[in-house]
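Quick illustration, no need to memorize.
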Amino acid sequence: MSFFVSKDLEGKIDESCLVPHEETPLSQEFVFKFDNNICDLIEIDLNDVVKVINFSFESNIHVLDNLFSNNIDKAKIIFKNTYLDLTQVKIEKIFKRESDIYILEVSANYHRGNT
């Protein structure tokens, strides 16, 4: 297993004490997933009568740009063992927070599925 040690630290620390970084998969519970993006949800409002969902999540500028530039046809909201397939995903509001952080409010049509 290899480690990265910056040039400034080479020879100054005992590299045998370093703990390997293990890749852990992102939690896929209570998330909005589209393309290769996974965003933690903040809030969800479901309307089962007309099958419309409104939800919000935190995003950076790259995710926001991806939402604007791509036609999202394979988006999901994932819970633990179930998910909602989303269609007609629309950005309703964008709130800018500090630096590169945005809160997006989104609406979509949905239907239920099981993982």
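The chain has a mean pLDDT of 82.
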